[in-house]
Amino acid sequence: MLYNFGMKKIVALLMLTAFLCSNTAVYSEVLEGHAEKNDTYEQRLQKELFTGEVEHLERKDIINMTVSQVLDSNLNIEGDEFFAEVTDEVKGDKGVIIPKGTIAHGRITQTGDPQRLGRQGWIALDFDYLVTPDGREIPIEGKMSTKLHPVAEASKIVAQDIGYTLAGGAVGGFLALNWLGLEAAIASQGYTLAGGAAIGGAVGLGMALIRKGNDVLIAPGDQIRVKINTSVPLPVYKETALMQHELFYPGLDIHISDIRHEKDPFGEVNTITLTVMISNMSDKTFSGLDMGLVNDYNAVFRPSIFGDTKLMFKQIKPGDKFVGNVSFAVDNIDRKFWLTFYDRRTGTALTKISVDNAYRKVSDRTKKKNLRLRKKKTNFKKEEDLLNIQ
User: Fold this and answer.
1) What is the number of other CB atoms lying within 10 angstroms of the CB of residue 120?
2) Which residue of 127, 131, 157, 202 could cross-link 103, Cys pair, CB 3.0 to 4.6 Å?
3) What would the DSSP string read from start to end of 190-257?
4) For 258-276, how does the pLDDT look when each residue is reduced to its tens digit (9 = 90+)?
5) How many CB atoms lie within 10 A of CB 218?
6) Is the Cβ–Cβ distance between 345 and 284 less than 8 Å?
7) How far apart are the first and last CA of the chain?
8) Closest CA to 278 of 328, 326, 243
9) pLDDT (tens digit per residue) in 92-150
């Protein structure tokens, strides 16, 4: 109990510190003067953060999150604690009630081992409270499970087993044709092929019966959808309180008009494509090589060669204007990002434009398309380690 209480306080303190630092422009007035905490300070903070209206987190609501550590049904046990991070704002009719970056505390409640007939392993998670970036602790009751509904699981297994059987039949017929020859197949009016297919089908069915499902692995970056089972009243945030801090260079005007989430050439949803408008009235020349996408862990990602490379190799001289697309392959598409231009000589950041701030003005159609694409990443199957030879 003391451990949980201490962890909650530590997480709340860290979140509040990070939130205040990332929103320097909003809190500059609050942080001036002495640091004595009193009713006036609390009231000013409430006024800076919230509109004064209240919305309810309802039972029907779904919160999108990503875990902060690997959860493995083969290694983790029931009762293990973990933390997750909210990846999409939760909105009511009047505004945002749970901001992106909110931390959720969870616990593994059940695990299931993979079974024969291809039945997959599964893992069930419970969530009991949230810690918002401004340090508030919100009690909730949320659940998430990777276990399929019995009907859905059965139909999935049947489909897979038919695939095994058909594949086995095709292989059996091919082997019969190669071993006995085309003449034998013609002379027997195709019975050799039918017999080979039957044998292959039996082998395939045997493979389907003895094959075992996979363990479950949920890794950072994987989207999990948590269903809320309680109704919780929450204050509505001001939009200014959720804006990320930005850095500007005199004369360099950068506007992000569209943000698309895309798959890379290998099928992974890890690419962010920005449509940018650049007006360079500064005293410096820039190119795409001076540009990077920086996340909230200060990891820098350079433009991807698999996207539009016009901006990557273009020189934007004083007086030039440019409109185009640029893509970045990142490690976790759900983190906070800043489009950053660096001084070519010193390597220091001259301007940082928040992608999260720009995303608020992106069309609802694009947001829905991005969300659908990210939702498709729901395969938590743990792949076998090919190097692990036993």
Assistant:
1) 23
2) 131
3) THHHHHHHHHHHHHHHHHHHH-B---BEE-TT--EEEEE-S-EEEEEEPGGGGPPP-B--TTEEEEEE
4) 999 999 888 888 999 999 9
5) 24
6) no
7) 41
8) 326
9) 889 999 999 999 999 998 887 664 444 466 788 899 999 988 888 888 888 888 764 44
C-alpha dist (Å) from residue 133 to 99, 104, 128, 300, 337: 8, 11, 17, 23, 17
Spatial distance between the Cα atoms of 128 and 11, rounded to a whole number of angstroms: 15
5-42 pLDDT per residue, tens: 455 555 555 555 555 455 544 333 333 444 455 567 67
| Residue 86 CA, distance from chain mean position | 9
Token pair 């609501």 is at which residue? 61
- Taking the CB of residue 111, how many other CB atoms lie within 10 A of it? 22
- Which pair of tokens denotes residue 73? 């049904």
**24-31 helix and 39-49 helix, angle to the nearest 10 degrees:** 160
**What pLDDT is recorded for position 251?**
96
Would you state the pLDDT for residue 130? 92
- AA letter at 35: A
Distance CA 293, CA 15 (A): 23
